[in-house]
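Quick note —
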Amino acid sequence: MEIHVGLILLASLFDYLDGFAARKLNVQSALGTQLDSFADLVTFGIAPAVIVYFVSTLSLFFVENGIEFWLFLILGFVPLLGAIRLARFNTVEEESSFFIGLPIPAFALITISLTWTYLEYTVEPLLKSARSARKASAEAGSLNRSLPASALG
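Predicted structure written out below.
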């Protein structure tokens, strides 16, 4: 999952540089605006929702309590509402020096930061302990195989 988080962080950097270059070079177009919004929707709306869904299914709480479907449904609203905000942003004619609402890249960065923190401090320690238990079990099994049959009793 760390690579997915890193890719979204990298995408946010490129999104910033893309917008900065378009404004500085004065090469903005209606098609470019729509394509940028579509890329934002996929990168900062759909991808974080999918990552959060898969990380949430690692938690037995969602799986054991049958909340997995509701989680999927709720997380489906993330890209939907992001698309509505982007469409609204693209259709507003007046210039503004401030954002109205939470920009979708900011939402994605907050979501991914919280997800990474959850993974790092909740899931990763559990995985490490499971790996060490599996390793200890495998070492005990290999020890039993290396002993002669008479020594096992």
